[in-house]
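DM from R.C. (forwarded with permission)

"hey, sorry to bug you on a friday — could you get me a structure for this? deadline for the figure draft is monday and I only need the backbone to look sensible"
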Amino acid sequence: MKLYHNQRQYSRSKVLIGATLSTRDGDSFGVEVVDLSMGGLFVHTDKKLEDGEHCQVSMLLGHAQHELPILADAVVVRTIRDGVALRFESIQLESIASMQHVIIDHTDDPDQAELEFSSHGGWIFSPK
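My reply, with the result:
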């Protein structure tokens, strides 16, 4: 069993959000986001993806006819038996405010999450 060192820089929020993950080869499938932060997310899926693989994530917030998608490009950093950990590469500008609200609303420490957002100029990710 391989152990992973916790390299998280940001507060995690436990969520249950339906999403679609699309790979660069055109494969799309449903996943469930269970962990979300400024830096990335963890999704439950039985699909196996390769570390370093790039994909797009579309999370749907709201109710049936009023769903608001949060769109982000991500890269696989780890695959385990029941899911995949992804690091955000970019997030559509229209999605940033919605994602910040979700993270703050579901974190154990909203003040810390607010501090993380303000210290990064409101960006969910740190551009390279």
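R.C.: lifesaver. Residues 13-119 form a domain with the Thrombin, subunit H fold (CATH 2.40.10.220).
me: no worries. Helices lie at 96-106, 110-119.
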